[in-house]
Design a protein that fits this description.
Layout (H helix, E strand, L loop, with lengths): L1 H9 L8 H8 L4 H5 L7 H9 L2 E7 L5 E7 L6 E4 L2 E5 L8 H8 L2 E7 L6 E11 L2 H6 L10 E12 L2 H6 L16 H9 L5 H14 L3
Antiparallel strand pairs: 1-2, 1-5, 3-4, 4-7, 5-6, 6-7
Helix pairs in contact: 8-9
């Protein structure tokens, strides 16, 4: 890893190596930017989570390799258990278990909640564990299907994130969306990256069947 890092550094002439160097260009954060961090899931955060159908979960393995996994369900699928704890159901997927395997060795996670059309986000950080408590699984069932596991997170940091990135990207403005006519399909990527024997058409059929039969 050090050799890779040294090789990367050699490609550039002006590499930042300290916070002091960053601050010399960007300055200090405003008081309100620092003060907006709270340590509990307050009423404002609860209301945001209740409307959010989507959350990104960041985790890190024992070797430091980072992963960010998207989670989505009907709005409010993440349950606030109390002012310091929330629960995220695990739905059927590809069984890679990237987040779960990371949490088993490093419980620290980060979250970003998104709501379609809303230009600010909610960020959280905390420590997670994986549970199978029957009562909790039953409470988070959809269409009669119980999640096999629940990611429970003890929250330590909660903060809202300003809308500038959403405004710049035009994320919720269809007229600003890029032309995707030349974008590879998910099936194309799977076949290419996995060097699979299936054709793109066969893989698309597998994907469509999974979306129809294995959502819950």
């Amino acid at each position: 890893m050090q050799d890779d890092e040294s090789s990367l550094r050699r490609r550039f002439r002006d590499v930042i190596t300290s916070e002091e160097q960053l601050r010399s260009v960007l300055g200090a954060p405003t008081d309100r930017a620092v003060a907006k961090v709270v340590r509990v899931i307050d009423e404002h955060a609860r209301r945001f989570i209740a409307h959010a159908p989507f959350v990104f979960v960041a985790s890190a393995g024992a070797d430091g390799m980072l992963d960010i996994s998207p989670k989505g369900d009907p709005a409010g699928f993440v349950t606030v258990l109390d002012e310091r704890t929330l629960a995220i159901p695990d739905r059927p997927g590809n069984r890679r278990l990237d987040t779960f395997r990371n949490v088993l060795s490093n419980p620290n996670v980060g979250l970003i909640f998104l709501i379609p059309g809303v230009t600010y986000t909610l960020r959280m950080a905390g420590r997670a564990l994986i549970v199978r408590d029957a009562e909790l699984r039953e409470a988070m069932a959809v269409n009669g299907k119980l999640p096999e596991h629940i990611l429970v997170i003890e929250i330590s940091h909660v903060l809202s994130h300003c809308p500038k990135c959403m405004v710049r990207s035009g994320l919720w403005q269809p007229e600003a969306w890029p032309d995707t006519s030349n974008l590879p399909s998910f099936a194309e990527m799977l076949v290419a990256h996995g060097k699979l024997a299936e054709t793109v058409e066969q893989m698309q059929t597998i994907i469509d069947t999974g979306n129809r039969d294995r959502l819950y």
